[in-house]
Amino acid sequence: MQGQALPGFRDSYPEELAFRNSIFATWREVARRYGFQEYDGPPLEPLELYTEKSGEEIVQQLYAFEDKGGRKVALRPEMTPTLARMVGARAQALKKPIRWFSIPQLFRYERQQRGRLREHFQLNMDIIGEAGPLADAELIAATIDIMRAFGFGPTDVQARVSDRRVLRTLLLGSGLTEAQLPTAFEVIDKSERVPGEALAEILSKVGIGQREATIVFEVAKLRSIETVSAALAKVKGGDEAGESLRTVIAALGTMGLSEFVAVDLTIVRGLAYYTGIVFELFDRGKELRAICGGGRYDNLIREIAGVDLPCVGFGMGDVVLGELLAEQRKRVEASGQLDAFLVAVGGEDVAPVLQLAAGLRDRGIAVEYALRNQPIRKQLELAAARGASRAVIIGPDERKAKVAVVRDLKTGKQRKVALTKVRKGVFQ
RNA sequence: GUGGCUGUAGCUCAAUCGGUUAGAGCGCUGGACUGUGGCUCCAGAGGUUGCGGGUUCGAUUCCCGUCAGCCACCCCA
Fold first, then answer.
1. Is A332 within a domain?
2. How far is the CA of A12 from the C1' of B72 (A)?
3. Which nucleotide is closest to the Cα of A400 by its C1'?
4. How many domains does one find in chain A?
5. Do A389 and A303 belong to one domain?
6. FRET partner for A189 with CA separation of 20 to 30 A, picked from A16, A96, A259, A358?
7. Mean pLDDT of A392-396
8. Strand B nucleotides within a 7 Å radius of protein CB atoms
9. Of A327, A359, A377, which residue sits at a domain end?
10. Do residue A152 and residue A224 come from a single domain?
11. Half-sphere exposure of A387 (CA within 13 A, CB side)
């Protein structure tokens, strides 16, 4: 075997591409329902676009190199900085709130494993220019509606919602210092996967004592808006900090999506630029990685483009989603697109078939025919394998009678149809 | 980037203790079937056993390296 795609990159055979396209089609359909407009940007960007604002996490795994002009460039690992630049450049002219979506191919240089390649496609939906929590709720609702459009219900997937402001306020209120916050975030993020002892050790290393550590673990266990609110009520500025989260949860409830939504403060998200609500969507079995993740990033556009615009957005990749769809056997069949397969009985029927094919194709009808002389049975076999809905058979008898035999390949029923009708694409 | 496990036909897998020409099912091609597909039967094509080296009379099998995949870290789109 020679010649393989690079590690973490995929060759997409027709069946797989049809599957991916069906995912894209659903994404676009739901985005349309929510009033979003599609945009795109370059797959290759200046390295600085990522090194400055996205945080170390992303920079470590950039696909970066120098181009022939000596410019330091990187394949885009995420779409948000590009979006921030584009919006920033026309910030004055665009009517707010801006609702844009894109389906970029993104790249990261990291060791691949299941659900995680070096390249993937990701739906990005962002609302820009609206600081109110209904924008956050709108996007969380969109992620849920996308999953519903794929046939998933509340027993299949769940959105877990948190707010960094809530986490901050609770932790600072419990006596942690600003400097200890990143470590506390890290521990909360890992609290479901890493044993408590190891976590306690991490905390003690940055000087977080027994009492504060206990509070950190308690915060990580909060799982409802009521318990979060109760905890917030005990600290300074707590009510105010929890307002967004309360509004988001209430709005999603009003939309009838409560079953899909849970408050979960262990959702932290790695990217440095998130400032408020953050959320992720998981399969209920938690077998796979997050299906989608996003949040509010109110400062990014100012930092990149110097324009003050609050934003909230999410990304949903095609890899984990695709695995979930395949696992649930909801894979869309790659059905043949052929309207008709033309069958020439003998060699002298080939010319009429070519003529008919050309005419039908001019009318936008998808047809195929055998490219060499073959027995009828072979031709019908090919027609069936192609998923053609019908075969149009032309032989000496048919030509004499100025008809064609139209055979329904699903039922096996066939009838004679006048050639004048068949030429117009009328098969019955 | 670190560690563990695994690599045999397009796919799923088999091959005794290290033994001769590496097999099967599915798929693909052709035939039985000369104007009617799906079923059945027959045949064929398809392999550097991931790659390179070592041990051995002999390696798919044992050893080393390397590459790739999976898993766990790291980290998370």
1. no
2. 29
3. B35
4. 2
5. no
6. A259
7. 96
8. 1-2, 10, 28, 30-31, 33-38, 48, 50, 67-77
9. A327
10. yes
11. 8
A1 CA from B56 C1′ (Å): 28
User: Distance from residue A365 (CA) to nucleotide B34 (C1'), in Å?
Assistant: 32
Residue–nucleotide distance: A405 CA to B8 C1' (Å): 49
User: Over 70: is that where the pLDDT of A423 sits?
Assistant: yes
Nucleotide nearest to A118 (CA to C1'): B77
Three-state secondary-structure class, residue A342: strand
Gyration radius (Cα) of chain A, Å:
28
Nearest-nucleotide field for A106 (CA, C1'): B77
Identity (one letter) of the amino acid at A270?
G
Read off the pLDDT of residues A142-200 as tens digits, 9 standing for 90 and up.
999 999 998 899 988 999 999 999 999 999 988 888 888 888 888 888 887 777 778 88
Residue A330: predicted pLDDT: 45
Q: What is the CATH number of the domain that holds A215?
A: 3.30.930.10
Predicted confidence (pLDDT) at residue A218 exceeds the cutoff of 70: yes
- The more confident residue out of A101 and A55 is A101
User: Which residue, A327, A356, A374, sits at the end of a domain?
Assistant: A327
* Closest nucleotide to the alpha carbon of A387, via C1': B37
Cβ neighbourhood burial of A331 (10 Å; 0-12, 13-18, 19+): middle
Q: Are residues A353 and A227 in the same domain?
A: no
Look-up: residue for tokens 């990143």?
A182
Per-residue confidence (pLDDT) for residue A53, from 0 to 100: 64
Do A171 and A88 fall within a single domain?
Answer: yes
pLDDT mean across residues, chain A? 89
Evaluate if residue A392 carries a pLDDT over 70.
yes
| Claim to verify: residue A52 and residue A186 sit in the same structural domain | yes
Domain that holds residue A388: 340-422
How far is the C-alpha of A50 from the C-alpha of A33, rounded, in Å? 32
Task: Tell me the pLDDT tens digit for each residue of A334-359.
Answer: 456 789 999 999 999 999 999 999 99
Query: Does residue A235 share a domain with residue A135?
Result: yes
pLDDT of residue A335: 52
